[in-house]
Amino acid sequence: MVGRQRTCAGAALFLIPVRSAPLLWFLSAAIGFLFRFSFPAWLCVPSGVSRVDAEHIGTAVGLMLTLAAVGGFVVPLVFEKIVPAAGYGAG
């Protein structure tokens, strides 16, 4: 079930460039709603993939969330430099 929801969220992301204003509101809600269902599966990654011991799962999940938050802060700062250098303007 999670795979289907991630596929739907990916399809919604793909539709963003060809959107109208009402469709953009719908796509934003759909992406947020569908990605919420993949979050619990993402929390299982430390135990399932890297075989972290049960007593260290909280630390591993905290580290993953910290790295995601830092990326969410740093990536826009990097794109702030890349986009004007590539010749794109605001708007």
Automatic annotation (TrEMBL):
InterPro entries: MFS_trans_sf
Transmembrane segments: 23-45, 57-79
Keyword line: Membrane, Transmembrane, Transmembrane helix
Protein known as: Major facilitator superfamily (MFS) profile domain-containing protein
